[in-house]
Amino acid sequence: MTDKNRILMIAAENDFLPGAKVGGVGDVIRDLPPALVMQGEVVDVVLPSYGFLVRLAGMELSGEVQVFFSGVEYSVEVYRYQHTNGGATNYVLHHSAFAPNGESVYCNDDDNRPFATDATKYALFCAAVAQSLIASVLPRPNVLHCHDWHTAFLLILIRYSSTYSSLSSIKTVFTIHNLALQGVRPFKGDDSSLESWYPNMHYDGSVISDTVNPHCLNPMRAAILLADRLHTVSPSYAKEVLQASDYDNGIYGGEGLERDLLYRHEKGDLFGIINGCEYPKGARYASPAKKKLCGVASECLVVWASKVAVLASAHFVADKRLQQWLAKKSRGFTLCSIGRVTEQKVKILATRLSDGKTALEHLLILLGDKNQFLMLGSGDNDYEDYLVSVSGQYSNFIFLNGYSHDLSLDLYRYGDLFLMPSSFEPCGISQMLAMRAAQPCLVNSVGGLKDTVIHDKTGFCFSGNTAREQAEAMLAQVKRLLVLHEEDPSKWKAIVHAAADSRFTWEQSAKDYVNLLYK
């Protein structure tokens, strides 16, 4: 093995620190560092405090740095977490400006100033990381690994700010987890703008500008062009982002950055490495009884409903559907789905076919009275309203409008078939968790889903050139699989076992990181 690297990961989320996870990036920053340590690397991770992380038991003050930002000098404290993550060390940068709207990871801004609060927060965080490195309060790495647009400001500072030019010898890697969120802000004329944050910096606007709004900064584009190595979280997604998106037809590609991504690909700087999944030794994934599953779901509905004074119709309808399902004596065939309720995850289900009915309605008609579809998730209000409306019309659809870790585990273990009809999927973790629990998946053959599910061997895939074609292909597969499950149980059981035996380990992914990204 070559000499070990010292890697500093900069991210917005980290599930190793309680409360610092919102999406999939939090899982990666929890699981990847210890896997890299096992490969002989030295790994440090740094996050903003968001106000609350500094109060975790085991946080110890390492030092303090003075950061000039937006014309003001900030005193930022650097804390080291005494509990290592499989040998990886975690740091937290603390200042009240990292919790501008309460103690939350992300802030939600009005549509007329998207990303404004978060962009300012992360621009300060990145300046504080750079200053901490120069002051040796954070250990100096030979690889800086930035994740998503929130950390792109560090790459901008290293390239264009004379204050931090001494960091330019450090190799840089940028990972794209969500290409759709790019953090676009104005260059000037706003409190949340590049020239407001870094007034003395001379930059090349042609490199870091937005492709649609050239008077705006695009942090995602900046990182794509400034990092030494570029990485997406699956091989297939690395190919898909080289093509233009076609939203009208439900096709998602480079999100306006495909030309820059193609440029980096042609230079040999873009790599796709699949995320891993944890496979605990000796873990058992026995299917719960229907009564137990319904009990857990009912308790979740009570908890969710208690958060507001007026009972949400989603919880009322779900409770009625659960009771109806529980009263059925036969088990039937159970389809499950878990995920954020967003356009990415629900667009295909909501696509209308030639008769005016949506794909989800056709799917429920195919399932019939004796079978069931359970969906767990929350997110976009319009899509939530659509799912509640369909559940009100079809008794075999139970939409559980919220999230619960325990309930999700039971659904992974109980279902016969896990449905993941994502319009795009950089990697995906739900399909891996379902397969791990011996539930084969039916997936749209895109991104990480294409890389993890082998059609008719470890699960089932569908595809199409438009959202409607994808919806029709999905329904054709459901129709076929209902027959297969009923009439060829031995083949179904073989696919169940193959799904459960599939492995996508962080150990293998970490080896690819070392060989492809860090050398």
Task: Break the fold down into its secondary structure elements and pairings.
Elements: E1 6-10, H1 24-38, E2 42-48, E3 59-69, E4 72-81, E5 89-94, H2 116-134, E6 143-147, H3 152-160, E7 171-176, E8 185-186, H4 194-197, H5 205-208, E9 216-217, H6 219-226, E10 229-232, H7 235-240, H8 258-266, E11 270-272, H9 290-305, H10 313-327, E12 334-338, H11 343-350, H12 359-367, E13 372-376, H13 381-393, E14 397-400, H14 405-414, E15 417-420, H15 430-436, E16 441-444, H16 447-452, E17 460-462, H17 467-487, H18 489-501, H19 506-518
Which characteristics define this entry?
519 residues, alpha/beta, Rossmann fold, nine-stranded mixed beta sheet, six-stranded parallel beta sheet
CATH architecture of the largest domain: 3-Layer(aba) Sandwich
Number of helices: 19
Q: Mean pLDDT, rounded to whole units? A: 96
Total domains, how many?
Answer: 2
Radius of gyration: 24 Å
Please outline the major beta sheet.
9 strands, mixed
Uncertain segments are: none
Question: In order across it, which strands form the biggest sheet?
Answer: 3-4-5-2-1-6-7-10-11
Terminal CA distance reads: 11 Å
- In percent, how much strand structure appears in the residues? 15-25%
Task: Count all strands and give the number.
Answer: 17
CATH superfamily of the largest domain: Glycogen Phosphorylase B
Helical content (DSSP H or I, runs of 4+)? 25-40%
The CATH C-level class name of the largest domain: Alpha Beta
- Which structural class fits the helix and strand makeup? alpha/beta
Task: Examine the coordinates and then state which fold CATH places here, giving the name of the CATH topology of the largest domain.
Answer: Rossmann fold
> Globular, elongated, flat, extended or rod-shaped: what is the shape?
globular
